[in-house]
Batch of 3 targets.
Target 1
Amino acid sequence: MASFPMIINGQKVMTRETIGVINPATGEHFAQVPVGTPQHVDDAVVAARAAFPAWSALSHDERKAKLHQLAAALEANMPELMKLLTQETGKPMNGYSGVGSGMEVGGSIAWMQATAETELPVEVIQDDEVARVEVHHKPIGVVGSISPWNWPLMIALWHYAPALLAGNTVVAKPSEFTPVTTLRFAEIANEILPPGVLNVVVGDGQVGAAIASHPDINKIVFTGSISTGKSVMQAASGNLKRLTLELGGNDAGIVLPDVDPKEVAPKLFGVCFHNNGQTCQALKRLYVHEDIYDEVCSEMAAIANNIKNGNGLEEDTDLGPLQNEQQLNIVIELAADARAAGATFLTGGEAASGPGYFFPPTIVTDISDGTRLVDEEQFGPIVPVIKYSDIDDAIRRANNSSTGLGGSIWSNDLDQAAELAGRLEAGSVWVNTHADIQPNAPMGGMKQSGIGCEFGHWGLAENTVIQTIKISKA
Ligand code: NDP
């Protein structure tokens, strides 16, 4: 079985004991990784501290060139990284509407290149006979990254790229469910970066907790659940670490009566079910106007019934398994609760028997707010479709959540849709699309969906501290 070491101070580190990494399509181990400990975190932080003076002293253009080299290395290793991603996440190589490992590795390359082109020039806010006042963005020091299992490579690189470009060094921990592609990337990256600049330690929540509380780490960027985000925030308070938290959501989409159900259904299906719904900004509650409710539901059900749900390594697979058994069990539980509440299942509803964590795309109707499937984040291939008659009521229900990550309005009247979009309490709102992110637009959550943002110059700024320099001329 292939082994993937941790990378600390440019060195490959294995441990006597290992964690077996499961391929969720088979339920069997396909790779093994070391069991990192808080001691490994300490070693990584020492290395990152030692590397910081030289790395932060490089010019912006020198670090930008390194990021472009990392993007080229990703591209050169794309087939291998895609296969590892499919093996550890279950996502198809291609996938329904092109959402699969190819998109994840391709997106990682695109984000690395776009981040490399981002900059925070010195701002001169006054320059007269009295004084010159400059605002500089300085690196923070050592950035700790804790990343999840749903888009393991891409989210890890969303953390690393701006941190490195800003002049920080990094100590990172991928999810123990999906550490393989990230470790392989770290190995490739360490042929380009000086030792200690990017360190990746793997282990369980103990390793994450050691990063979150470490006195020599200056900032944490975390993507994952709201409850773990709260623990990270608490642990980070010891030395007042800067925080970027990208947490869960329960994104609502509202479909107005003026759309053509046939045309809109494939788009809605794509944004509800891509990556099996295991995306922080997947559409998780769908509100459809009563005039077109039945037709939208039956069009979506027709698509669900034609989906090939299988092993992602097979070329024609649309959707793979869920990434882990724990997530499959959450979906099973929410389905049972909806059934007990009297909801109708147009498709799916039962886990597949046999190996792997498969659950077919499931469309649930005759359901409303107050049911767990509507009120909680399912993070899986089961979507409640809720009927509404009054748009103000639909907006109120969409906003009735402690989270506020994303939301969408679907209509042919773009002016009205834009006005309604502005009324949704979410960090990202789309019209006639959903989860449609791009590297130059900030992404962050309102309410309990997070703190701060990623991407663009806004995301880069979160990896810096501001220094004001005033030169008195009087
Ligand atoms: P977690 O939030 O528990 O895990 C995310 C990361 O945090 C993992 O690397 C995990 O490590 C690490 N971690 C766990 N405990 C701690 C801790 N005390 N201190 C620091 N780091 C820690 O997500 P889960 O994997 O448990 O998924 C649960 C739910 O989270 C899902 O059902 C979904 O709702 C949501 N989620 C949201 C994501 C998003 O993109 N916003 C992504 C993934 C999940 P390890 O796993 O190795 O213990």
Target 2
Amino acid sequence: MPLDSKHPETLALHAGWRADPATGAVAPPIYQTTSYQFRDTEHAAKLFALEELGNIYTRIGNPTTAILEERLAALEGGVAALALSSGQAASAFALQNLARAGDNVVASTDLYGGTWNLFANTLKEQGLDVRFVDPSDPENFRRATDARTRAYYAETLPNPKLIVFPIAEVAAIGRDYGIPLIADNTAAPLLVKPFEHGAAIVVYSTTKYIGGHGTSIGGAIIDGGNFDWEKFPDRQPALNTPDPSYHGAVWVEAVKPLGPVAYIIKARTTLLRDLGSAPSPFNSFLTLQGIETLPLRIERHVSNAQAVADFLSARPEVTKVIHPSRQTGAERERADKYLKGKYGALLGFELAGGLDAGRRFIDALKLFYHVANIGDARSLAIHPATTTHSQLSPEAQLATGVTPGYVRLAIGIEHIDDILADLDSALRAAGA
Ligand code: PLP
């Protein structure tokens, strides 16, 4: 449905769906089907030839998932989206869509540990070289670029450092070479708008804030439609040369009548078709339900997290609070440029008592859940030294900057008094 509004509060409820023409149903239906009957042979042939877009098979597309995709694209200011079964699938596809064996991608060191593992091990074993660079100097991306660099990759608000990525600076470097910036915006939906700063592709783990209720693993890739793939045929061969996996289609040509969607259509019709990381229609429905309240939830997440950052800063048990509002100098300037005073809902802190204090703190929590997830409506906590970080290589551990007494919090939308009371009693249990 064409919708004029640019307001996220409205788009979150209306983009991509208006009452079901057949039944009048207001809530998006769950199309729990694998297949779709073709009207006749001509219709089927057109669908397969991409002359007409439509439903073929739920591995490649589904009407419930299509509502989710349209809503995500609208909220992000992109032209089209591809929903996937996890955030991991989204980050893998985002690179594999452009880079083949022998090619490389330059990525920020400040990444979620699972993304780091995917890039440093699994994709590397498949011949795709991901080069990690320190994002504090955007020029590091240029230095690591060569003739076979196909993309730059970064998290906008990387956890656990929470130092905002220089989106516009790195996107501008890439655009000179025909290299798109792919931005994982999982930690900052609605807070950071990567396309407004020159990113070409946005990636989400919808498992987190987008879904918001900790019910469904999911991911998405959103195409900004703002990148001129055709202008750089040597740099972007995957979109500019005949693709044997789709009867020789040259994606920038084949998809032109549909708009600037070559990247996202290729991801759906080749990677999703072949690798099959499709979301279930039921998970797409649950994610859509979550999105309806995303703008409201984010406001509360952010204000609660700010109150927690202020509270922890005054505690004797805490030696350091990691939150953009506590940053100074260039880091703070960047945080303010991109986050505009709304510093997200993730924060970390270091306990004076180190490893054992971290354990005592976690074990004393009553309201916060002790989980590896972030972005749930409930408040969550984890002690990386005894959990997530034990799986990382020493190099990756160093890059995260996490110490033995570090605790990560993902602040939920409960009443702030209850959140602070739980933190207060756990800090007392942790001791100095
Ligand atoms: N990107 C970020 C920033 C994440 O935090 C996560 C998960 O924690 C992922 C990607 C992977 O998403 P998923 O767990 O949905 O596969």
Target 3
Amino acid sequence: MSRSAHPAGPRHADVLPEGHYSAPAADLNVLDPKVWAQTVTRTEDGSVSVGGIDVATLAEEFGTPAYILDETDFRARARAWRTAFGHDADVFYAGKAFLSRAVVRWLHEEGLNLDVCSGGELATALSAGMPADRIAFHGNNKSVEEITKAVEAGVGRIVLDSFQEIVRVAHIAQGLGRRQRVQIRVTVGVEAHTHEFIATAHEDQKFGIALADGQAAEAVRRALALDGLEVIGIHSHIGSQIFDMAGFEVAARRVVSLLAQIRDEHGVELPEIDLGGGLGIAYTSEDDPREPHEIAKALGEIVTRECEAAKLRTPRISVEPGRAIAGPTAFTLYEVGTVKPLEGLRTYVSVDGGMSDNIRTALYDAEYSVALVSRTSDAEPMLVRVVGKHCESGDIVVKDAFLPSDLAPGDLVAVPATGAYCRSMASNYNHALRPPVVAVRDGEARVIVRRETEEDLLRLDVG
Ligand code: LLP
């Protein structure tokens, strides 16, 4: 097949440029349930619907780009984690993945707790009625103001990240006449198999207190001696977008051995351990994530076994999934603006958003998939790069994917699995207006975070 046979873009392996992609799916109209939210389906007329609402209707009503969030799926995933871990464990949803007041209420209703890592996330959680004792407060450099607010609110735990913070939190709590429940975050020396920027448990990084050189034991020693603190456990988070449970197992083993050391030295058995978040999701059909019940079983078994060996009471386990709950539940809906075929290379498809609504591709070289959702097409697949409208050539949303070669301006395309770390990391680059988040459920759609307006931008610009 010659290249000229596909003027809109090359198809076959012998003419494809280098890139991270496999052959196009046999039928581009089929939506892989692995990467799409639960209620997403092709309708009889060839369009795509979510929560019973057609994407064209959503685009018309709410505009594009927009994050479309499947509330049924979000609740189902939250519930699946809650059920898998049972009543002897706690699931703290990591709000950094995506947080809004509606999400806080869903989590509360589904029986989850919440991990926040800034004053802003804490304020959002409290304003939506999450009971403070179900909130964990994280961060490697919490301000005095943030710590004060968290202690005053009565958060269930503050996760201490440094020697300075041990003293700082104790001092603030004591000043307020409180005894703050705390965990100590340790780095267990596990390097999770993920992108360098989001691996967090190897020692050469900013988070936590190293276990290997005795620093963590020293931190516990100091924290136990302070009246303002009640040390309830040890925390470990080894990274993000992890598929292999081996890293968690090593982490659990090392944390339990620290618990045994603390028991031997201080005669105290700390009642809790938190193994963090980081479980991977499917961004493309190639990814094979674990189910919550498999994860709960694996973690429960390893902690129980290690505790039995060390003759410790099994502590209460908690986990902090963010991406694994929010990620698969939303897609970003874009309208195609321009289509630029480059003979022998690929076709650039420009959409009406970009790196301001999804920075992950530019920042982590993340892989995404994409589909034409406003209609079906039997046209030949073409290799595309989905790019945004920003003044930067690194403004790439989907690096390598296939779309039908009759794609045209005005078509709607959607990028699945954008529920985590897309809206929460969105920016106003080029004074882009951050898109809304529209929650869809049982035939109803409602805006849970509205689209920014030019007035919003200008309101901040007081000069
Ligand atoms: N717990 C702690 C202490 C964390 O630092 C994180 C993520 C989580 C839980 C939740 O991890 P998850 O289950 O969502 O992977 N912006 C990056 C991810 C940074 C994650 C930072 N911490 C991304 O877009 O991939």
